[in-house]
Amino acid sequence: MTKMNSNRCSKLATLLVVALVALAAVPPAAAVATVEADGAPGDAEVGEEVSTTYTFTDLYADDTPRQWTLRGETNLTNATWTVTAYDNAGDQVGQTQSYGGSSFEYDVVADDDVAELEVTLTGTVPEVENYTYDPQQSFRLTEFTEVRDGGGTTEIDSWETNHYTTASSDAREALDSARQAIDDADESGADVTEAESSFRNARQAYESGEFDLATNLAEEAESKATNAQESTEQTEQRNTMLLYGGIGLVALVLIGGAVYWYRQQGDDYDKLG
Fold first, then answer.
1. What is the pLDDT of residues 163-177, one digit of tens each?
2. SS3 per-residue string spanning 38-88
3. For strand 103-109 and strand 153-164, is the pairing parallel, antiparallel, or unpaired?
4. Residues 194, 222 share a domain
């Protein structure tokens, strides 16, 4: 009995191992389409209207169905979508479809001769909920997903856009300038402890939405970094001058000693003569 149980456990363990290896060997589902974006902004101001056109090709991969659903999502406000389908010859298939809202779904069907899709998204850049300096605050411009029958989904691609206000942009520029000045001063060997402290305070003010304070503190940090670097450079110049002066003094002493020795040798020769 014990031997039979042992054999059953051994077989069960073997089956589990085989199952795990098989699962590990299954590659993740590939995205069904290729998409390129035209006009996707890397940065945009809050309240600005933006428009981006996405072109989808390779709609039917070998391991994907001949019919699936394209889902688009965005965090733009007042968003509108237009979807136009084309066949292999580049001729439009059917009517352009329009959608409103933060998302849409469009059925992609090979039997309808749909070979390419053009999706245009237009909307307004949303308000910033949380300001961050590094990384800069951003929002989801667009995300496209393949939805298959039965509920399976695969992300096709997505885009993020940094958003800002005039005040936050000015504060960020001051922070960037201060950061560069501190890094330069640090590389020169200057003590940037005070500058770093002011910069941390500036960053905290920025992330709290206090942009005027952030700008002032950033300018203070930059000034401290610049002064520290100038002080270090002046000290190095002074030390260099002292070094050269010391070398010159030693050279004069050596020259004077040599002249004295030479004259002494001459006087000794005259006395012997």
1. 999 999 999 999 999
2. ECCCCEEECCCEEEEEEEEECCCCCCCCCEEEEEEECCCEEEEEEEEEECC
3. unpaired
4. yes
